[in-house]
């Protein structure tokens, strides 16, 4: 199948970027033997604009996308976080190629009002919309053109390559990486842990509490030096919602703690992720696993194996293709 993948490819980061869900989707599409053409809207806008000023290149980026549709003749267009591309351009793409199926993907949380409006805007024109929150939360977008689907944050075998569960001794016992402070009070939980974890527990917090943030390979190295990780989302009340952090932690073999409100126990195996309900509960469970290396390694290894087997970018990409094209599922996707 010929697939045009429209997303922010972060070309101008020159490698200094965090793991990208769009990159994992691109890798997965190729592994599924599709012919994939990437189109990075923000980068094209900057490349085409006078003096590289991206806002001056938005119109040209839309024109270049239509030029790409005409030249590449895709069967499917997957549209990620690409606000520069207008709905009018997507409608024009259909006129160029009437059989074209257009799918939207949104990997941002629904507690951010601007993001909800972005989804509302896209579901008018795309044939399917995939959102990284559970289907129970998507009823607000019903009644438009798009069929609604949940999508997880996957691991990728070429990206999540480390396995902390294989080691007894690593420099950090617990890690939490973040610099985001909007729409959240999770800093209070991190502060509580800072004050209440035993001194024997080494707790790293890159990006907050005076610790320098880590990106790219420094982020990878920080995870590879840690036994356990906190998957603290900015808000915890949304069904099957998690940032990409959970896949990055569990996929690298860190024992991963996540709030029970996400209800990931509905498809994750027992004794894999560690669910907590309160500050005190999380603190107690961290101490418990810190004192039992064998238990920590066992749970973490089970989560890592499950993510790499059932929530990987190859299955993730093929699920998006099959759901978009109304094909029979070729795999019993655990999140579907």
List its traits:
alpha/beta, Rossmann fold, 2 domains, six-stranded parallel sheet, 336 residues
Topology:
Elements (H helix, E strand, L loop, with lengths): L1 E5 L14 H11 L3 E5 L1 H8 L9 H15 L3 E4 L7 H10 L4 E6 L6 H10 L5 E4 L15 E4 L21 E4 L10 H11 L6 E2 L11 H9 L1 E6 L13 H7 L3 E5 L14 E3 L2 H12 L2 H18 L2 H12 L12
Parallel strand pairs: 1-2, 1-3, 3-4, 4-5, 5-6, 7-8, 7-9, 9-10, 10-11
Helix pairs in contact: 1-11, 2-3, 3-4
Question: Please, could you describe this protein's structure?
Answer:
It is a single chain. A 6-stranded parallel β-sheet has the order 2-1-3-4-5-6, with helices on both faces. The two termini are 23 Å apart. The protein has helices at residues 21-31, 41-48, 58-72, 87-96, 113-122, 186-196, 216-224, 245-251, 279-290, 293-310, 313-324; strands at residues 2-6, 35-39, 76-79, 101-106, 128-131, 147-150, 172-175, 203-204, 226-231, 255-259, 274-276. By secondary structure, it is an alpha/beta fold. 37% of the residues lie in helices and 14% in strands. The protein folds into 2 domains: 2-154 and 312-324, Rossmann fold (3-Layer(aba) Sandwich), CATH 3.40.50.11010; 164-310, Glycogen Phosphorylase B (Rossmann fold), CATH 3.40.50.2000. The mean pLDDT is 94. Helix 1 (21-31) packs across helix 11, helix 2 (41-48) packs across helix 3 (58-72) and helix 3 (58-72) packs parallel to helix 4 (87-96).
């Amino acid at each position: 199948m010929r697939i045009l993948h429209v997303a922010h490819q972060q070309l101008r980061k020159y490698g200094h970027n965090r793991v990208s869900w769009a990159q994992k989707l691109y890798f997965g599409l190729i592994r599924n033997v599709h012919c994939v053409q990437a189109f990075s809207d923000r980068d094209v806008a900057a490349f085409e604009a006078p003096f590289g000023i991206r806002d001056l290149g938005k119109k040209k980026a839309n024109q270049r996308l239509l030029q790409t549709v005409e030249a590449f003749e895709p069967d499917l267009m997957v549209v990620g976080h690409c606000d520069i591309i207008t709905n009018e351009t997507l409608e024009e793409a259909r006129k160029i190629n009437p059989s074209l199926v257009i799918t939207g993907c949104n990997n941002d949380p629904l507690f951010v009002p601007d993001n909800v409006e972005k989804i509302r805007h896209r579901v008018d024109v795309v044939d399917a919309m995939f959102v990284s929150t559970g289907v129970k939360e998507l009823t607000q977008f019903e009644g438009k053109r798009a069929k609604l689907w949940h999508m997880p944050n996957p691991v990728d075998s070429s990206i999540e390559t480390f396995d902390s569960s294989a080691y007894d001794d690593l420099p950090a016992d617990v890690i939490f990486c973040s610099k985001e402070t909007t729409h959240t009070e999770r800093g209070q939980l991190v502060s509580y842990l800072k004050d209440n974890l035993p001194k024997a527990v080494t707790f790293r917090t890159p990006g907050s509490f005076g610790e320098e943030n880590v990106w790219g390979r420094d982020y990878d190295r920080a995870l590879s030096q840690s036994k356990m990780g906190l998957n603290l989302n900015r808000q915890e009340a949304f069904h099957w919602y998690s940032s990409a952090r959970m896949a990055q932690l569990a996929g690298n073999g860190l024992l991963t703690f996540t709030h029970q409100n996400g209800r990931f126990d509905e498809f994750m195996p027992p004794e894999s992720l560690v669910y907590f309900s309160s500050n005190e509960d999380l603190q107690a469970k961290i101490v418990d696993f810190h004192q039992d290396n064998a238990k920590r390694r066992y749970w973490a290894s089970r989560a890592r194996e499950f993510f790499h087997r059932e929530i990987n970018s190859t299955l993730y990409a093929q699920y998006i293709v099959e759901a978009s094209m109304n094909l029979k599922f070729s795999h019993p996707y655990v999140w579907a």
